[in-house]
Amino acid sequence: MKYSRPASKKALSFLVILLLTAGCNLFSTTPVPGNTPVAVATNIPLLATVVLPPTTAPPATATQSLPPPPSITPLIKEAPSATPLPTTPTAIIPSATAAPLTFDSQRALEHIRMLAQEIGPRPAGTEPGHKATAYLVDQLQSYGLKVEQQEFTVPTFQDKGTTITLPGTPARNLDGGPLSYSPSVDIDAPVIEVPGVGSPDDYQRVDVKGKIALVSRGELPFRDKAQNARNAGAAVLLIYNNAPEVFNGTLAGPGPLPSLAISGKEGGILKSALRQGAVKLHITSTTVVEQRTATNVIATRPGQSANGQAAGQTIVLGAHYDSVDAAPGANDNGSGTATLLELARVLAHNAPGPNTLVFVAFDGEELGLLGSKHYVSQLSKEDTGQMQVMLNFDMFASGNTPLLLVGNPNLTDAAQKFVVGVPVKANSSDLSGASSDYAPFKEVGVPVLSIHRDYQYIHTPQDTLDRINPDLLAQVGNLALDMLKRYDFKKATG
Ligand SMILES: [Zn+2]
User: Fold this and answer.
1) Cα 366 to ligand 1 centroid, rounded to whole Å
2) Model pLDDT for residues 125-147, shown as the tens digit of each residue
């Protein structure tokens, strides 16, 4: 999930947070006042690897509370970064074939440890991203599934160093930085305050040609603000937050103009200085925008009718495995990826019914659903016509807030019946103003069911393994298994 981040207030208003993926960063939303952080009550701090119980041990079901994790023996004697990672990190998972047909949350937890701790932050197109790809391929192949790697290119962004300096004695660097995909710039220029939110009309009243346009955050997507500033002849766009903190955002692709973000506090200082007289800034920003290769990992378990003939339709199970560069992504979206892997292991050998199951680990979701958009763009009408449902798993294994079920109403209603006793937030056909990898499928008419939970540590360095609650992994894993076993998606979606 992707969003701009002024302090923690934003993190709480999850539904607002869900302005994710391409959503939020495009829109300079106003932070929600007055929310206070929710303590994550059910953490199980895990500092090292869990030694998995023998597969015969019946793992807990959703309704039973999980036995406390077995004694934890540190696996890695020295800091993981000290020992160079093998190209494919080796997980401690006994062979899949012997496993009974149940979801094992400790196995899922081990996948999260590998992704969030051994590999760490894994933006699409980066080296850690490629390591995560290799790990997923390795795991899915070890379950005996046919695995395909679907490559596509993504624009990646790196800030190689940026300063926004207010000359004076002493000169001072302002609290801020480039929006993602902002091109490099090195300039000394006057600052002009643009009224309003930087709409084309707002530029009628000021002359920003060759200067730095100072614009308030709000209403317009960042990319539109940059285009308007460029059209007005500005050399740089400087957006100040409408909250005291600094924020980060994206131009969602190579930008039309160098565009930087500063905190609301710095914005206020500049505006009052401008009321005293002219103000100049020295901005140096070196950034790299590159097209890089990202990979959707696709594992297929073909359907089979009673007479052994290929039959039935297709059920897609999906989760994105990339993270933002600031976060280890244990919950966003280690939880969804691990659940997808564990479901693939269980269903690879014991899949109910004739339908073909396709497990897709999407890349590039944090860059704007790029992996799921690419995947759907490669499908024919016949392919999508064959799809009974797309089940999407994205960030649900931490915290104690209600389960969020999103998608086709009859599917969200049905799903609710499978999670008796679990607080569920009102079903909705869509995330308000936000999205996740179900959206490209929904756009082409495939019925979808997407599972989430709000999370205060989204996109932060605090999105770590110790915040994961294995009970919530089992809860969602068993929800999916039960629906696949007992729910006729075909009848439901007609
Ligand atoms: Zn996510």
Assistant:
1) 7
2) 999 999 999 999 999 999 999 99
405 CB-side CA count, 13 A: 22
Rg (CA), the chain: 24
Query: Residue 153: which residues within 8 A CB-CB, separation 6 or more?
Result: 291, 292, 293, 294
Distance of CA 121 from the midpoint of ligand 1 (Å) = 13
Q: What CATH code would you report for 157-289?
A: 3.50.30.30
Q: Return the number of other C-beta atoms located less than 10 Å from residue 86's C-beta.
A: 10
**pTM of the predicted protein model:** 0.72
CATH superfamily of 105-155+291-493: Zn peptidases (3.40.630.10)
Residue 21 CA to ligand 1 centre (angstroms): 8
| Ligand 1 midpoint to CA 335 (Å) | 9
330 Cα: distance to centroid of ligand 1 (angstroms): 10
Segment 32-42, tens digit of pLDDT: 334 333 333 33
Q: How far is the CA of 382 from the centre of ligand 1 (A)?
A: 29
Domain ranges for the chain: 1-55, 105-155+291-493, 157-289
CA distance 359 to 102: 17
Distance 263 CA to ligand 1 centre (A): 26
